[in-house]
Amino acid sequence: MLTASDLRSYIMDGLSSDYVEVQGDDGQHFEAVIVSPKFTGKNRVQQHQLVYLALGERMRTEIHALSIQTFTPEAWIKSNN
Question: 3-state DSSP call for residue 49?
Answer without folding.
Answer: helix
